[in-house]
Amino acid sequence: MAIRTLDGKTCVITGAASGIGRATALAVAARGGELVLTDVNEIGLAETAALVGRGGGTVLCAHALDVSDFDAVVAFADAVHEKVDSVDVVMNIAGISAWGTVENLEHRHWKSMVDVNLMGPIHVIERFVPPMIAAGRGGHLVNVSSAAGLLALPWHAAYSAGKFGLRGVSEVLRFDLKRHGIGVSLVVPGGVRTPLVGTVQIAGVDRTDPKVEKLTRRFEKHAVTPEKVASRIVAGIEKNRFMVYTSADVRFGYWWARKFAPPYEFVMQKANDRFSALL
Questions:
Q1: Roughly how many angstroms between the first and final C-alpha of the chain, as a whole number?
Q2: Which run of H or E residues covers position 265?
Q3: N or C: which end of the chain has fewer CB within 10 A?
């Protein structure tokens, strides 16, 4: 049973302390959704919860944790499920970024990109989606990937490792969860004006270099606001869209790279249905 309205729905949002996560929390609360919020930033998370409360929204739970810590996610999910049998919507928004060429990237860059941007969402999916299936009420899963999860952007090898992986998880679950009435949305933002722009690690590059600062300003000029991304996410849920674009350039780039999508999607759904019949 696809989600047609967020009113009264229990929604988990990771990365809720700032940027897209905070904007989405406020947008969902404005539509009557009841929020379960988390982020590694405890202070920012408390600020988001306060903003939701001042706007008349409902925060059922706000708990600071690192989504890459599986034990912490398990404890968080168990606490949530003591209050509700299952949630209705899961939104994996938390993420970090590091760029660089292969000779400059260190092991810690690769590992952190996979731990937070891929394993983090997987941890959340593991603990929240099976109870949604068991409850039998349908629901929706949102995974925020990136244009770097669709296209081979320069300096994005480590970042794309996690974001392409999350895209793959989402594509499979899109078909796998359909029979349970759970929709899946893959959000693929391009540039977004969030704190991540200022904190992104660029291996082997001096962030104070005038050329780098000029490139950063150019990026910010063409970036969209977190509020715009949040509105697209909400629309994606309510209209049960798989691909959620936030800018026309990403949509065109992906179409150009893979224009024979409809036959592929038809075959993948039939294959998934055939495998599911064996269960």
A1: 21
A2: helix 261-276
A3: C
Please name the helix (run of DSSP H) or strand (run of DSSP E) that holds residue 138, with its range, or none. Answer: none
Q: Give, in order, the Cα–Cα distances in Å from 129 to each of 87, 215, 227.
A: 8, 40, 26
Query: Tokens 């379960």, residue?
Result: 36
| AA identity, residue 184 | V
Q: Which two tokens stand for residue 31?
A: 């539509």
Torsions phi, psi for 92 (to 5 deg): -90, 95
Separation of alpha carbons 182 and 23, rounded Å: 23
**What SS3 string covers 184-229?**
EEEEECCCECCCHHHHCEECCCCCCCHHHHHHHHHHHHHCECHHHH
Q: How far is CA 123 from CA 68, 70, 78, in A?
A: 7, 6, 13
Confidence (pTM): 0.88
State how far the Cα of 52 lies from the Cα of 43, in Å rounded to an integer.
14
**Residue 112 parent element (H or E):** helix 107-114
Alpha carbon 219 to its chain's center:
21
Positions annotated as catalytic residues are 159
* CATH for the stretch 10-276: 3.40.50.720
Please tell me whether residue 246 adopts helix, strand or coil conformation.
coil
246-252-257 Cα angle (round to 5): 120
Rounded distance between C-alpha atoms, residue 258 and residue 7, angstroms? 36
pLDDT digits 0-9 by tens, 132-184: 999 999 999 999 999 999 988 888 899 999 999 999 999 999 999 999 999 99
- Residue 10: both structure tokens together: 């229990």
